[in-house]
Specification:
Helix content: under 10%
Strand order of the largest sheet: 2-1-7-8
Structural class: mainly beta
Shape: globular
CATH class: Mainly Beta
CATH superfamily: Transthyretin/hydroxyisourate hydrolase domain
CATH architecture: Sandwich
Number of helices: 1
CATH topology: Immunoglobulin-like
């Protein structure tokens, strides 16, 4: 069964990024349509589970936009203005709508990494 999920870990503090705002967008050429906006729970995940499930996942281009600077400012981190990382957009493709796509983000105010998880 296909699905899309995400998980964000705050590598500065060594914990899930609870409270971070995230947007999921579907990309169509230069257009980006926001299809879901949510706030990460205490585990750094979407409260409702999968962002897209077997019924709503379709092949195509997508973007997750993570509000990194706002999250770290909310944690009391004194960031410069403008912050080095503000919003982090991750563009990715889904080739197989029946596949499992997990897009984790490991993030600090100065660096991030991602990979296709399971």
């Amino acid at each position: 069964m296909g699905h899309l999920s995400t998980h964000v870990l705050d590598t500065m503090n060594g914990c899930p990024a609870a409270g971070m705002a995230v947007k999921l967008q579907r990309l169509n050429g230069t257009q980006a349509e926001t299809i879901k906006a949510f706030t990460l729970n205490q585990d750094g995940r979407n409260d409702g589970g999968a962002l897209l499930d077997a019924q709503t996942l379709v092949a195509g281009r997508y973007r997750l936009v993570f509000s990194v600077a706002a999250y770290f400012r909310g944690q009391g981190v004194n960031l410069p203005e403008p912050a080095f990382l503000d919003e982090v957009p991750l563009d990715f493709g889904i080739a197989d709508a029946g596949g499992r796509y997990h897009v984790p983000l490991l993030v600090s105010p100065w660096a991030y990494s991602t990979y296709r998880g399971s």
